Amino acid sequence: MTNTQPxxxxxxxxxxxxxxxxxTQIMEIFxxxxxxxxxxxETEAFLKRQPHLTVRRHxxxxxxxxxxxxxxxxxxxxxxxxVPVIDNFPPRWLEPGDPLIRxxxxxxxxxxxxxxxxxxTDMKASDAVMLYLAATLDGRTPQTTPKVDLTYxxxxxxxxxxxxxxxxxxxxxxxxxxxxxFAIIGEPTNCGIEGGCNGTIRFDVVTHGVAAHSAxxxxxxxxxxxxxxxxxxxxxxxxxxxxxxxxxxxxxxNATLISGGKGTNVIPDECRVxxxxxxxxxxxxxxxxxxxxxxxxxxxxxxGEHVATGGVFEGxxxxxxxxxxxxxxxxxxxxxxxxxxxxxxxxxxxPLAKLGWTDVARFSQLGIPAVNLGAGDxxxxxxxxxxxxxxxxxxxxxxxxxxxx
Amino acid sequence: MTNTQPxxxxxxxxxxxxxxxxxTQIMEIFxxxxxxxxxxxETEAFLKRQPHLTVRRHxxxxxxxxxxxxxxxxxxxxxxxxVPVIDNFPPRWLEPGDPLIRxxxxxxxxxxxxxxxxxxTDMKASDAVMLYLAATLDGRTPQTTPKVDLTYxxxxxxxxxxxxxxxxxxxxxxxxxxxxxFAIIGEPTNCGIEGGCNGTIRFDVVTHGVAAHSAxxxxxxxxxxxxxxxxxxxxxxxxxxxxxxxxxxxxxxNATLISGGKGTNVIPDECRVxxxxxxxxxxxxxxxxxxxxxxxxxxxxxxGEHVATGGVFEGxxxxxxxxxxxxxxxxxxxxxxxxxxxxxxxxxxxPLAKLGWTDVARFSQLGIPAVNLGAGDxxxxxxxxxxxxxxxxxxxxxxxxxxxx
Lengths: 405, 405
What we know:
The structure is a homodimer.
Chain A: H1 15-27, H2 37-48, E1 54-58, E2 61-65, E3 73-79, E4 92-94, H3 103-108, E5 114-116, H4 120-136, E6 149-155, H5 166-173, E7 182-185, E8 194-195, E9 199-208, E10 212-213, H6 223-226, H7 228-236, E11 241-244, E12 247-250, E13 252-260, E14 266-267, E15 270-279, H8 285-293, E16 305-307, E17 317-324, H9 334-347, E18 352-353, H10 360-365, E19 370-372, E20 387-389, H11 391-404
Parallel strand pairs in A: 3-6, 3-7, 7-19, 8-18
Antiparallel strand pairs in A: 1-2, 2-6, 4-5, 5-20, 8-19, 9-15, 9-17, 10-14, 11-12, 13-15, 16-17
């Protein structure tokens, strides 16, 4: 048993002190992936002490909802696990001038305290702000009543394999818990908006030949030589940049693995080129596949090799290996437009497209537009010297309060 | 200890009976590679009983020489090991009509006994003829005095890795034992001449790139895509057929292996294409390498990657992996011309080029022209139903006696 303290909020303290205190408390509870239990326990207990919240738990994922009878609902989600610690636990507040403060942070935030340690940016700073909002947006006064109902999701196992992901699990087990018109995941973005994401498919493109001894090569058919056509098509392909809802999504088509041959003196009878297509959210999975192999090739995960009937690899063998749909940024809705405008006013930043596949796509698959928006510098995530300046907490809280209330 | 009988020759029997008896005796002595000792022992003892021979042994290789004071010397060589047995040891004489006789052999040799079992064609039939010649060409009468001195080599470990090869070892340890103007290896050729051999070099052609996450492919450089140029050059290459000393050598240039990539979502930073060039004996090793990578690329076995300065793969990285020189057929010398004429008269067959690398190339490297010429069908070598019709022995003996005496 880890001996943890209950998470508390001092009602007499200033807002900034409350935010810093919440962050300190949750960073002091060790929560590397697979060890989220104690932090999930204290998070659940803290939320249950707020009478305006309905709190539910699945595994180490805690879901808390308001029920103010609003027409719309917004989901605020944050993972509570961290990557493994590297001598950066427990956390420490660094006073101005401390040599552990990174130069870039010291320059941007002189005379400011910095919280150093595992999880500072990825993503306990955002978690602390969400806990603050969960406790204080209680519907008791106009200043503490949001324009929308809110669902807070604190989930486990984001930093490891997708099959362990707590958000995925709660969505599958309790889809009714995760409903709303818009979602924010508090991944570090320096309070900018990063929206949607490219989809990705991976498949083998296969050539076949006839084996023979390489001293009698004319008795065989060289499958590796045939793969020249595959690589030539990859080189001829011009990846597009596609604008979706105002964001630019850069596509990519790449061989990531190649293998072929049975021995140094054997004409190879098979060659496999593993191809990864990253496609913009203007395309469905089916559309992306059609562009690669034709609409009716019939290649599906686990059903073996099929001949591409069209697309880039027409005529070659195709074996599907992996697929994940794209997610539109969902910035067209009025709620989202308000957020974009607020972020532009306060930070001068335009929304950016997310390139890799992230948890926002899970919401997108549920039909819930979602973006990443969180405190802290994303470049410090997973770093040994992960740290966040104290004012990042209030910057995020200000932004969300201005949007929500 | 294997309990073997001494090899004997009945002076009262007919020549054909003597040949059949010798083959039976040596096939009854198990001699799969690594177990040649007993057969080497009996071969050595048999040869030592011939007073006109000087017999020497290195490992399980036995070398026996005449010293008739002739101006020229011919080497007759045969390996005594076999590939592993597959229910085809000990050997059996099959009478005409026996269902174990292959149809093709029964058709070509009706009413003839067939010796069935491991080593029948590869190559104890030829070994038996050589033992017969070693015992009977004794220099005592004009009919038993060859026009040349003879050196008989019975060697071990031909059917396994080259580093174990007994012919290679005796050539390295005792170069003075293996001298002559011409050599015949009795590999099965149906008594045809197969001469010289292509050389072979193997090398990796390497491309380099820059690794990156495949969601941000433009941050990297795809080494597999770059390999398109290597495969295109292979496809553009037109392998030649080169006539050397009247024989046609068909060349070949092939990728036999390809590999590249570090993970399904990583832009690959290296791709290796393993290439095998089989070149005709009009080219030295250096000339063959120059055609692939330029004369001054500097790539040698074990010295890592160099840039090809010319040739087919100019501009790519090259790492040498293996090299073996070609061997000219050496059919220009009068001795060889006599043999070619005799084979043509008796079998109607013209000499053929050897395509793979064989032990004749070892003699070629010593400056001794060499060909394969032996009893039995080469297509039956290593087969479960390996067998040889009795008359193949006298056909080979007739041919060699007509040439030598």
